[in-house]
Each structure stands twice: as C-alpha cells, then as structure tokens.
Amino acid sequence: MKQLERDLLEYAESMQCQELHMNVDEETGLKMVIAIHNTILGPALGGCRCIPYPSTTAAVIDAIRLAQCMAYKAAISNLPLGGGKAVLLRPKTISDRTAYFKAVGRFINQLNGRYITAVDSGTTIQDMDVIATETRYVTTTSHGVFTVADPSSLTAFGVLRGMQAAAKFKLGKDSLKGLHVAIQGLGHVGYSLAKLLYNEGARLTVFDIDKNAVNHAVSELKAASTSSLDAILKTECDIFAPCAFGGLINDKSIAMLRAPIVAGCANNQLEEPYHGEALARRGILYAPDYVINAGGLIYVAAQYNHITEDVTLHKIEGIYDTLMHIFDQSEIEKRTTSEVADNLAKQYLQKS
Ligand code: NAD
Question: What's the order of all strands across the beta sheet hosting 30-38?
C-alpha cells in the first residue's frame, strides 16, 4: 500500500500536480478522485467524468494527466483558470443517481471553490443540476444563459477551426472543401465535427464501435465507413481525426497512418511525449490536443464567468491563430508542435 501511495504521489510530483483529493461514500457507492494541477491563474476548472476503471491507480493517474491537460489548455487559451479534473469510478450500478451526485456535490463544496466542476464523459447536464443543489462550484447546468447547453458542439467548432489552420499550414489550402477527413469516434464531439465538416464540403470516412453512429453518418453525411480501428488508421486521407479516447497515437498506429495531418478532439492523444517527435519524423503535422480541443473549456469558463456568447464564439475562433503560431514556431525552433505548445503553456503559468 505504501509503495502504491509513494508511486502515485511521485507521479503527481512529476506532473507538477499540486493536490489530490479522494473520497468514498458508502451509502451511494461513490468513489471519487479530484486532481488539482494548480490554481495559479484561477480556480481549477475541469470536467467530472464517470466511467469504469480497472483500478483506483488507473483512475488517479487519469485524473492527474487530465488535470495537467486542463491546466495547459486554460493557460494557452488565456483563461483565468487553473486545471483540475474529477474522476468518478463508475460502479456496476448506481442505484440512486440523485443521491450519488449529491454526494459528489458535497465533496466538491468542501474544496471551497479551488475546484469547479462541469459535464464530461459519463455525466449529464441533469447530473450537474443535482450537484448544484449542494455547491455553487459547478457549471454546465441547465440554468446557463447560453443557447447551447452541451459544450461538445463548441469543442467540435474549435476542432474545425484547428483543422482549417492545419490545412492552410501543411497543404496550403484555404478551405476544407474537397479534403478527405478520417474520423475515429462519432460520439458527442466526433459526430458534431462530422456534421460541420460535411457542411464545409469535406469528404468523410468514419469508424466507431457503435454501429448506429456509423450508420447514421453514412446515411446523413454520405460518409464512407471502415470495419476496424486499424482500417481507419490506414485510410489514405488529408486529415486523421482521433475523436474517441486518449493514447491512440503510439508506435504501432504511427506506422499505419497515411495522413499528412493528425487533428482531432481526443484528450491525451500521444501515448508518450516522444510520439510527437515520431509523428514529425514521418512528416505528419500534429495539432496538439489540448489546443485544438479547447472550445468546450472556453465555453464552460465563459458560462461560469457570465461572458456573452458572441465573445465566446470569437475566442473559440481564435484557436486557428493559436495553432498557426504553434506551427510557425515549431518550424522556426525546429521543435515538435507538442513541445512548442507545452513550452508556451508553461511560460504563461510562470508569467502570472
Ligand atoms: P463520447 O463518449 O461521446 O464519444 C466517444 C465515441 O468514441 C463513442 O461514440 C464511442 O463509441 C467511440 N469509441 C469508443 N471506443 C472506440 C474505438 N475503439 N474505436 C472507435 N470509436 C470508439 O465522448 P466525447 O465527448 O465525444 O469525447 C471524445 C474525446 O474528446 C474524449 O477523449 C474526450 O476526453 C475529448 N474531449 C471532449 C470534449 C467535449 O466537449 N465533450 C472536450 C475536450 C476533449
């Protein structure tokens, strides 16, 4: 047990993650981890995910990685926020969902605003409403003033802007019209993105383990589909978009890719930092995940801080310029795009 604790805390230290909080609630079956990377620029805002984990260690590691990702995302997006994440180890059944999320709210409230929560994988706007009965440190409830309730469509819009920047930089194209995009994952963000791309005149090839989502994209968006993950990775296309889960970009997948650009919404796309270098060696332009997928966070932060929808959309559009700057710097400094992004984020954190 000691060994495990020491390893986790050493991992937290290596990721500069300042706080780890854990809570169990026997009555509701809640097992919860909150990682706060830092609160240098402001309170740590990050989603609350509720998914099954193979072990507590895996959940804590995920929380730490995601909190760092949120911290860098907030810093590079120039938001007055730190980075944090709540991870709920989803039990086989949640017998009383209201009681379960009330317990989540009470726990968040104990942190006195150092962590602000929001909807994420496995949680809903209704769950946020329940959390809001116990704490005010929550956003993405159904009581927000924005016309869009779910941040996913704004994340997709930011990814679209990022793809436009990548297409301009790598292919010299002013538009995505006629470009071929392969999307892995047609969930909340992936499907919204597919729709936006279709409207831009892009050609789509898609893969998801959910056959309904694929059938929908085939009929609604005239997408082609592949029958396996390997097949979508090997699809010859202009942009490969990882939109399902983290760690997809690794030694095996990089060898399969037939796209000059990797740009998608998934968090923590690189299995290890050196995979940024491996992509660059193959001449593949990588749009760093936390930069291109910041639209949701920008929106969520705006909702919490009562910023107007117009100003928010304009800020999300700015993902184009942020990425263009990173691509330019990467060429000038002869460093990978992921290194340039990390350095910029760290600089913003130090400057404050
Ligand atoms: P989601 O759960 O709605 O969608 C994920 C999709 O991936 C599902 O359709 C699922 O069936 C599919 N999938 C799972 N395993 C797969 C596999 N092996 N191959 C192909 N498809 C597979 O999640 P989401 O909200 O769309 O988020 C997707 C990714 O983007 C996640 O990594 C998330 O952390 C990240 N992200 C989401 C947001 C947001 O606003 N929702 C913001 C930033 C980052």
Answer: 19-25, 30-38, 82-89, 44-51, 115-119
